[in-house]
């Protein structure tokens, strides 16, 4: 389902602005819109039992051009935050991005949802209309089921005599305090990622804000009839994003609703540890080949590599150290390491940093073995990321899979072409902004463009390298793309070294 939706959205928005690739960032954006609009609403909100409802009515109608719009923005951004957070959860699940080192973001995401819902509920309560009354009564019944209150809340607080201005101040405090805790946890949630993308691209952010404004003008958020605790609430319009559990508390029993909520929360929270388990061992550093350059440290998307003082007496100042529990086994560090060059004549090719499940030596062997079977004109080696659908092989096409396309050290492209193992190389990875391991294709693009070490040598003819970034393409789309590439290669004829290109930084990438 995600594959179909994302392909459709790719066509409408393009890869860079596809909202599905920025769901976590859109939750952040929603939060900032909620916070900014909420601040304004709070200035005019009266925290008293008699003043709450009229002050919001005044904002909505008397000040419709600003207060009214901001109230609606507050409401729509709150809805959007739930939608984007839940879609984000489902998508991370669909990508299996919860096991191993990913457990941390997954596990901290679960209380985020609770805090988000609690923030929304406390907000609905403040309006003190019929919906607020329904929320107040059902929340009290629900909380009363827990053996934490000596006196039932529903009897002591939720009746006309007991709901006081002080109680309203407490609610206002909760409606500020819980979102602040939410914000704190949002930052905890992204702690283990380097350069976490918590801001959507500018175009997407502006488009989202504009669509909220349009919605606010077309369908302004309104209060329902004022609350009256002397009468039971007949019927209310629910906000299903925040209050979906409330009808269950009402219809079933508070105990059953707690059981459901706690059961779902527990299952979701422990998913990272349910089978199937994590795959393969973490990246390992081979000190005899590590010169302490720090490229693996710079490129690791999960802060799993640190640079520490040298321990083996070598003349380099630092060495790379991998934290097993943070390592996602993506291999991007291998692609970054200058010693991972297939041209090296060492009997056993060992890079400074390796993924034991697929060493650089094995990768060279695999590529050499596979390309031996290539035949005819326009021969292509596809190096694809394991997350994508398998590429169909044929007489002219062979494919090698890596955990992430960013694992391929650029000298391998040079090696394949200059040794004429194939006429062209296709790198097939996830869509822009959607790398399974966050930065695999970004770093590869930068390495090919010569903007990031290790840069692809200038002598490599770029027209023989096709970068195909699409996370979940249809088989036919990949076949068509390959066909076009092969036709282009045939018209180029046999491989010639790009003599015109002046060597730049490639000299440092391991000489031929
Ligand atoms: C308030 C709601 C949430 C916000 C604002 C949020 C935000 C984010 C952001 C900004 C990222 C980083 C994206 C990147 O740079 O690649 C992220 C990643 C992630 N989030 Fe959330 N998130 C929220 C809720 C959740 C929930 C409910 C879950 C699941 C239970 C979850 C699971 C994850 C996972 C697994 C990752 C990816 C970590 C990785 O690549 O290893 N998030 N989130
Ligand atoms: S494989 Fe390398 S780049 Fe990937 S998380 Fe582990 S240490 Fe970082
Ligand atoms: S990139 Fe390679 S050589 Fe550089 S610090 Fe990391 S392991 Fe060592």
Search tags:
single chain; 512 residues; alpha/beta; Cytochrome Bc1 Complex, Chain C; 2 domains; 4-stranded parallel sheet; 48% helix; elongated; binds protoporphyrin IX containing FE; binds iron/sulfur cluster
Total of domains: 2
Bound molecules: protoporphyrin IX containing FE, iron/sulfur cluster
Order of helices and strands: HHHHHHHHHHHHEHEEHEHEEHEHEH
Q: Between the first and last Cα atoms, what is the distance in angstroms?
A: 47 Å
Report helical residue fraction.
Answer: 40-55%
Rounded mean pLDDT score: 91
CATH fold node name of the largest domain: Cytochrome Bc1 Complex, Chain C
Number of strands: 8
Portion of residues in beta strands equals 5-15%
Which sheet architecture does the biggest sheet show?
Answer: 4 strands, parallel
